[in-house]
Design a protein that fits this description.
Layout (H helix, E strand, L loop, with lengths): L2 E3 L13 H10 L2 E7 L6 H10 L3 E5 L11 H11 L6 E8 L7 H18 L3 E6 L2 H11 L4 E4 L5 H9 L3 E4 L9 H9 L5 E3 L21 H12 L3 H16 L4
Parallel strand pairs: 1-2, 2-3, 3-4, 4-5, 5-6, 6-7, 7-8
Helix pairs in contact: 8-9
The protein binds zinc ion (ZN).
Length: 255
Amino acid sequence: MNLIDSHCHLDVAEFAEDLPQVLSRARQLGVSGFIVPAISASGWPRLADLAALHPGFHPAYGLHPMFLAEHTDADLEALPSWVSRPECVAVGECGLDFFVSDLDPERQESILIAHIRLAVATGKPLIIHARRATERVIQLLRRHGPAKGVIHSYSGSLEQARRLIGMDFMLGIGGPITYPRSSRIREIVKDVPLSHLLLETDAPDQPMAGEQGRRNEPAKLVRVAEAMAEIRGLSLTEVAAETRLNAQRLFGLAA
Ligand SMILES: [Zn+2]
């Protein structure tokens, strides 16, 4: 088995002490690719260094909406040259967060639009964070796209999922599907085409069922794959193979 964690924040302080061990635990369980989206411009150089050091480590460069206060106009001006670097597999993490109340929605939107335009210009996919904001993200993608990409930790409705898939967007699926009571996302995972699902841990956040309060890590991706296999009535091998192909296709990774 060979899985790709399509969303993990391996560059954050939680992994500073033991990243090599975290990566080797993941590889032992068959997780060999790691898409690591940036949070803010101050983290871009470290992501590039980590990508040069660790096989299977693929960075994305962008400005995360939850860290709006850190982002400057100079960061936005610097972003295109970072996104065109060869190790960069995507534009992000970017998006809209209308759940956290002190984040100016207009500034969030203008920054997201800049990311969408950059994705259109470079052909690289978007990694989008959409919390209480799926409908607005769809509108902005329609207005400023067409771009390809993934809505990570998908939390919209089934109907919105179908529209996103109609725009050839992927849905990032993680720990929430391991909770038996997460019936809405489990229904979506059952219903939409497997060709548009990606596996993710969102490590160090979003722990699996039974592991609340603990640091999440890419080795746990196997539990997401197992839950998806169970929900869809497929074998783990089938889910692993197809979601890996999906990630390779979206991020342009070698087979
Ligand atoms: Zn994230």
